[in-house]
Amino acid sequence: MTDLVVHNAAQVTTPTDDGGMMTTQDGAVAIEDGVIVAVGPTDEVTREYPEENATDAVDAAGKTVLPGFVDPHTHAVFAGDRADEFTAKLKGAEYQDILEEGGGILRTVRATREASRDRLVESLLARLDVMLAHGTTTVEVKSGYGLDVETEMKMLEAIGEAADRHPIDVVPTFMGAHAVPDDTDTDAYIDRVVEEQLPAVTANDLAEFCDIFCEAGVFSVDHSRRVLEAGQEHGLKPKIHADEFERLGGSQLAADIGATSADHLLQSTEADITALGEANVTPVLLPGTAFSLATDYADATAFEAADVPVAIATDFNPNCYSQSMEFAIELACNGMRMSPASAIRSATVTAANAIDRTDGTGILRENSPGDLIVADVPDYQHLPYNFGVQNVQTVVKRGEVVRH
Ligand code: NIG
Ligand code: FE
């Protein structure tokens, strides 16, 4: 039995496996057992998979069907917010000064330590709802506002419980090395991450990736190597916040240890970009962070020139408070000068690579997961062209309409 037929779409647009983009006018998609069984012109697809035989059907007349978005970098579980720091930054305060004065990440750590696991689950579920409304069907969520075993575990457990209760696929990342807590120094804290947190997190199978904030004034390249290699020994795949404010060498480390992704990359040089490409590390650019910090954007065109495809993500966190991949795509175009086709690729299949989902996630084709969105736009160009609004209307996860 067919679960779902989406038909009559003005356009079905999808990245292809060979790096291109495929567009079908008057298109349709059929899904069975949560997996795509046909993509093509409506008359062809519905001849084989008639709507009347399907459990559900969506008429997408005048609209565009795309793969569900993949958001491969968020810090979406935390308590409290930092709206007042937002206002302070607008008056000139700097992100790193706020952090050094005990604000920023450390303030969110204090709030998150105090919050119950249930509160974290409830707030994360509400945030996942907003992500879903803007087309996200798979998201990565990091810990890192605990900085002690107990709270890092609480965060990862909250991620796991929210994942069980929400249609979005949630990929958990352990990021104990997000900042140095104020009761210790950096070297001693790295010992705790490696000797206490990593073993506890992995013994309970709470994470798939390990991440670190490799940055001047936070963790060095040596610290990062130590944590990420220890993570690998415990079965966690490495990710790294690299070369954001200063070019410390995080990209080169990512290439050296075979990280799944390297993220931020505002200071990356041509040599860094080549190294990432050669080592098959997916670069993740976070235009929302640059937008909210009012800094320059990462140089997406340099990656494009080197033929190294980039992913984009929201980086949703208390300092970059946007759950919307629609907005990330708009910023990729309007801020980083990517074409709509490249931005959509970055938000789908390349984003899936950044979290090691290489089963066809982010591509509409036979045997891919049945994750798609219907946007109220006549073609994919209109998605970033019509910015600042919610274009996504219907969201399908594994063949089920989860939002309409
Ligand atoms: O990716 N850079 C470190 N982590 C986050 C910010 C987290 C925060 O400010 O709470 C980021 O931008
Ligand atoms: Fe981040």
UniProtKB/TrEMBL annotation:
Q: Which residues bind N-formimidoyl-L-glutamate?
A: Y145, N317
Question: The Amidohydrolase-related domain covers which part of the protein?
Answer: 64-402
The coding gene here is: hutI
**Annotated source species:** Haloterrigena turkmenica (strain ATCC 51198 / DSM 5511 / JCM 9101 / NCIMB 13204 / VKM B-1734 / 4k) (Halococcus turkmenicus)
| Cellular component, GO, one term | cytoplasm
UniProt GO molecular function: imidazolonepropionase activity; iron ion binding; zinc ion binding
E.C. number(s) listed in UniProt: 3.5.2.7
List UniProt keywords, sorted A-Z.
Answer: Cytoplasm, Histidine metabolism, Hydrolase, Iron, Metal-binding, Plasmid, Zinc
Q: Where in the cell is it found?
A: Cytoplasm
Q: Per the annotation, how and in what number is the cofactor bound? A: Binds 1 zinc or iron ion per subunit.
Pathway given in the UniProt record: Amino-acid degradation; L-histidine degradation into L-glutamate; N-formimidoyl-L-glutamate from L-histidine: step 3/3
Do you know which PANTHER family this protein is assigned to? IMIDAZOLONEPROPIONASE, IMIDAZOLONEPROPIONASE-RELATED
Q: Where does Zn(2+) bind?
A: H73, H75, H241, D315
Regarding protein family, the annotation reads:
Belongs to the metallo-dependent hydrolases superfamily. HutI family.
**Gene3D superfamilies xrefs:** Metal-dependent hydrolases, Urease, subunit C, domain 1
Q: Which protein are we looking at?
A: Imidazolonepropionase
Residues annotated as binding Fe(3+) are H73, H75, H241, D315
Biological process GO annotation list?
Answer: L-histidine catabolic process to glutamate and formamide; L-histidine catabolic process to glutamate and formate
